[in-house]
C-alpha cells in the first residue's frame, strides 16, 4: 500500500485501496456520457510484431468507455500499413491509424515544412504531435490518455487510473501524469529518472538557486513516465519537443500554461516494465546517452527562458555538484534494493552516473554554442493561424488512407 503524502506543489493521487478495475471502469463509463474519452498510442511498426502491443490491444479492445483510439504509426511501408489496419481492426472502438510515412501525410508535412511549422526531426515527439492534431480535428474525445506501446506489464487498470483524474467531471484537473515503481524481474530500473533527472534537479537548486519551476519538477515522482492524460483544450497551446526531452518538455509546458492546482500525478501501476534502451557509453547520438543530453538541454533551456544565465564555469560547477549527489543516490538505491530483496549492479550504476555527468557538460556546451536552437514543435494554435484548413486536411488525409488501404471496405474502416 502506498503512502498518502502530499508535497504541496502538485496533487498526488495514490493507490490506497487496490480498487477493482471493474469499479473504476464503471465510473469512467458514466463520466464518458458527459465527457467522451480517448486514447493516443504512438507506435513503431516493429511493436506490432513484439510481445507488448498485441497484449495491450487484446486488453483494451473491449473497454467500453473509450470513444476513440488514435494510433500514430511510424516506420511503415504500404504493406505494413495495410497489416496495421488489420491488426488494429480488432478494436471495437472508433479508431484511426495515422500512416505517418504515407504519401498523404508526407504531403501535408511538406506544406508545413515550407511554412517552417513542421516537426524538425523524426521520433516520438513528431508522432504524438500529429496524433494530437487528429484528436483536435476529429472532436470525438474531450479527455485523452497517452501511453507507450511497449509496456510488458500492461493491464486495464493502468488506463483507467491514468484517465480518471481528467475524466471525472467533479475534478478540475487539466493534466495528469502517471507514476509507478520501475521494478521488474527482481531489479530496480528507471536509471535515467533515478540517476540523472532527480540528482540533476537537486544540483540545479544548489547552483542556480531554488525557484518555483525546479520545486515543481522535483515534485513529480516519475517525471519521465511516458503516460499522461489531458483535457482536449490543453492541446491547442502545447509546444512539445521532438527529441528525447518530450516528457520534460510537456511538464514544462504545463507549468507555463496552468496553475499547479489544475495538475496532478496518479499512481497507475504496482509494477511496470517496458523495452530498455542501451546505455550507449561510446555513442552520444544513441540510447540513454542521447536521451540524457536531450533531457539536460530541456531543463537548461527552460531555466534560461526564466532569466537564468549560464556560463561554461557554471556548467562545470553543475557537473561536479550533480556527480556528488548522484553517487550518494547510488548508495541510497543499493540499500533500498537490499532491503527489498532486489538486485542492483553498483558498477553499472556508477558507469551511468559518470556518463550522465559528462553529458550534462555536453548539453551545456551545446546550449552555449547554439543559443537559438528551437527544438519545440509549434503549438497547434500557431499552425492553425498560419494554415487555417490544416486540421481538416489532416483528418481528410487520415480518412482517405483508411478508406483506400483497408483490406475489405467496411471491415476495418470502422467508420463512425
UniProtKB/TrEMBL annotation:
InterPro entries in the record: Nucleotide-diphossugar_trans
Keyword Transferase attached: yes
Domain of life: Bacteria
Gene3D superfamilies membership: Spore Coat Polysaccharide Biosynthesis Protein SpsA, Chain A
Keyword Transferase included in the entry's annotation: yes
Annotated keywords: Transferase
GO terms, molecular function: transferase activity
Name of the protein: Glycosyl transferase
Amino acid at each position: 500500500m502506498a503512502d498518502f503524502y502530499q508535497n504541496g506543489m502538485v496533487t498526488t493521487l495514490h493507490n490506497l485501496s487496490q480498487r477493482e478495475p471493474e469499479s473504476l471502469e464503471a465510473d469512467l463509463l458514466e463520466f464518458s456520457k458527459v465527457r467522451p474519452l480517448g486514447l493516443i498510442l504512438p507506435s513503431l511498426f516493429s511493436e506490432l510484431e513484439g510481445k507488448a502491443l498485441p497484449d495491450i490491444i487484446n486488453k483494451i479492445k473491449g473497454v467500453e468507455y473509450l470513444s476513440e483510439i488514435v494510433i500514430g504509426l511510424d516506420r511503415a511501408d504500404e504493406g505494413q500499413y495495410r497489416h496495421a489496419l488489420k491488426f488494429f481492426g480488432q478494436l471495437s472502438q472508433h479508431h484511426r491509424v495515422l500512416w505517418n510515412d504515407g504519401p498523404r501525410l508526407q504531403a501535408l508535412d511538406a506544406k508545413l515544412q515550407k511554412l517552417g511549422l513542421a516537426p524538425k526531426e523524426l521520433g516520438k515527439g513528431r508522432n504524438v504531435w500529429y496524433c494530437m492534431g487528429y484528436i483536435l480535428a476529429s472532436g470525438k474525445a474531450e479527455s485523452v490518455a497517452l501511453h507507450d506501446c511497449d509496456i510488458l506489464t500492461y493491464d486495464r487498470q493502468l488506463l483507467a487510473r491514468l484517465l480518471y483524474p481528467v475524466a471525472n467531471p467533479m475534478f478540475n484537473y487539466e493534466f495528469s501524469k502517471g507514476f509507478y515503481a520501475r521494478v521488474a524481474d527482481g531489479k530496480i530500473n528507471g536509471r535515467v529518472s533515478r540517476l540523472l533527472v532527480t540528482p540533476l534537479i537537486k544540483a540545479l537548486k544548489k547552483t542556480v538557486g531554488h525557484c518555483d519551476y525546479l520545486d515543481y519538477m522535483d515534485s513529480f515522482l516519475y517525471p519521465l513516465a511516458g503516460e499522461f492524460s489531458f483535457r482536449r483544450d490543453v492541446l491547442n497551446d502545447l509546444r512539445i519537443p521532438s527529441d528525447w526531452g518530450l516528457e520534460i518538455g510537456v511538464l514544462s509546458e504545463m507549468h507555463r500554461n496552468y496553475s499547479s492546482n489544475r495538475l496532478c500525478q496518479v499512481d497507475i501501476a504496482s509494477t511496470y516494465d517496458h523495452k530498455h534502451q542501451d546505455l550507449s557509453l561510446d555513442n552520444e547520438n544513441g540510447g540513454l546517452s542521447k536521451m540524457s543530453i536531450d533531457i539536460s538541454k530541456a531543463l537548461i533551456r527552460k531555466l534560461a527562458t526564466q532569466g537564468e544565465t549560464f556560463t561554461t564555469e557554471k556548467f562545470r560547477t553543475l557537473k561536479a555538484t550533480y556527480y556528488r549527489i548522484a553517487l550518494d543516490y547510488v548508495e541510497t538505491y543499493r540499500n533500498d534494493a537490499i532491503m527489498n530483496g532486489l538486485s542492483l549492479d553498483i558498477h553499472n550504476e556508477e558507469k551511468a552516473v559518470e556518463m550522465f555527468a559528462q553529458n550534462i557538460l555536453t548539453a551545456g556546451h551545446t546550449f552555449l554554442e547554439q543559443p537559438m536552437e528551437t527544438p519545440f514543435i509549434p503549438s497547434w494554435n500557431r499552425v492553425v493561424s498560419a494554415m487555417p484548413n490544416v486540421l481538416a486536411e489532416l483528418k481528410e488525409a487520415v480518412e482517405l488512407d483508411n478508406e483506400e488501404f483497408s483490406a475489405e471496405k467496411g471491415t476495418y474502416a470502422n467508420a463512425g
